[in-house]
UniProtKB/TrEMBL annotation:
Its cofactor is Ca(2+). PROSITE patterns: SULFATASE_1, SULFATASE_2. This is Sulfatase N-terminal domain-containing protein. Residues 26-50 are annotated as: Disordered. Belongs to the sulfatase family. Residues 79-399 form the Sulfatase N-terminal domain. Pfam families: Sulfatase. It comes from Amblyomma americanum. SUPFAM superfamilies: Alkaline phosphatase-like. InterPro entries: Alkaline_phosphatase_core_sf, ARSB, Sulfatase_CS, Sulfatase_N. Residues 30-39 have a biased composition (Polar residues). The chain crosses the membrane at residues 612-630.
Amino acid sequence: MVSRRPQTVGGRPELLQKCYPRTAAPCCRTGSTSPSPASKSGIGNMREGSQSQRMVPALLMLMMATATPAATGSNRRKPHIIFILADDMGWADTSFHGSPQIPTPNLDALAADGVVLNNHYAQSVCSPSRAALLTGLYPLRFGLDGNLFFPSAPGGVPLNVNLLPKHLGKLGYKSHIVGKWHIGCSTWSHTPTNRGFDSHVGYLNHGEDYVTHTVTYNGSCGYDFWFNEQLLTDAYGVYSMDIFLRRAKTIIRDHDASEPLFLFFSMQAPHIGTGQRYFQPPEENRRKFLYIGDTNRIGYAATLDTMDQATGAVVEALYEKGMLEDAVIIFSSDNGPDPIGMGSSWPLRGSKQSLWEGGVRVPAFIWSPLLDRSGAEGRVSWDLMHMVDWMPTLYQAAGGKIDDLGPIDGVSQWGTLSRGEPPARQELLHGFDPTDGSGAYRSGSYKLVVTPSNKSWKNGRFQPAGNVSSNIDVDQLTADSAAAKTLAKLYSATETRAPSPEWRRRAALSCKEDEQGNFKPSDSLYLFDVLDDPCEKKNLASERSDLVESLMKKLNAAASIAVPPGQSSPEPEAYPEYNNCTWGPRQDIVCNKNDNMLLCPTVETSVAAEPFYGSFFLTLLLSLCLVYVLRHLAS
């Protein structure tokens, strides 16, 4: 096989040439890698909206200009589709569900004017959810249920499965992805621009540092930041959310508004960063949340705030381009939160990587002038919806015929969402893991959960860490948000008004904390009425054996089509030291592993978050790393 060396975008600063003169990949570092006004690679940090403006690096201009600006368009039949996907965001991590600890005013403004999806489900972990969204298929059909791709693992979503951008392309759409990919990148054929997207700026794997854009896995560190198939080396040192927002705004600005746009804004926030750094938000965001008290929760809130601000800035950009009046904007998390990452699904049970409600029931809404706007302010939908439904829903919204998509698991919800038609779905598969037999199935209001007892550590209920401020008026913050002010312009309103608090109460969940439940972590079979008991406190399995039998048959039917998971960890030749110091498609370019180890941050701690494990464990970790490096230098 002929090796394929990617081109690089950016300069070759002395810091990087010192270790790897053959490549512009930043394979070593010195000093701090926290966000700074100007990094050693010559890139200034960038903020948008109400935040301070910072220098745009000239060497990133290639990715910031994709076409000549076009005049704003006139009426069009196909809507512009903007899908904003958060990473590891929990039910209690947004104020549009009534949680006051972390205000999300821009999200709230769109949610209050759109439809809050209170029965919206994802897969329990990131790769399967993204695969479900982009294929309309349950990921168990290709061995991905409950599994995820570790850096540069072989395979990916099968190449014979067409993704959403490929289908939309047949309808005349231009499709762009900004941010995280994470559904396979072992070959170039698996990467975004070979799966239907016209461009990609972001990373291919997961769990990377917000500033260095590096990933450490099994002791190997590699760079992972790309513009299509080119390394964006001078992104090193620039806060990723700044880059992603500027790229999203550039796509909108340069888009020919007479053609339909699909923008998949796949956020890094609020996922934790790599190693001990956790969160690295700008100080101006962090200062907003000092009242929380818990250092790591402050970092999480500030990181989430950058995502909320980016959402408002995208809405502004769409309006300025004349595209907002024909837009469909969807917001969702890819799965429940990781408590170690300081997210919270309270009051729901469970978290990321579990089939409890807190792992799969995610905050979501849809906004569009094309929706039925009759009825009370702040429409809240309790209709059942799953991530696999978005492909047929958006394809139909774009004017496509559902039959053209072929056999899929998703059902179109466009009639339900836009015209108030009867619910399109009554049942769904939450997941099935063929390796241990665990799974969950929902029918009507009842949910069956089968789980081995060794997974019980994921079944807790995790309250948000830290404090809540009594001095925050979330409704007024929402009215003052960029999104709310932009919507007022769209509707030609003379002022923005705070929405009625009633809509938030309708979107909140009640878990009847005063009632005693019978939940036992040692049980392996559960049945819940999640409409009456969304927090899964009362196990009805012994009372309703008829329902258990019925749902078990449906779960077993789903299990019969499950494909065993493939290899999710990388092969030895996929590690950065054999691939130009990167985690990505195979390149067969050797670099020095010992020097490459210096790339990933392990010493510095974000200004927004202290090490989770405390100083003793940090000292121990650093000592082990030093021993490791010295041994390799001596060998």
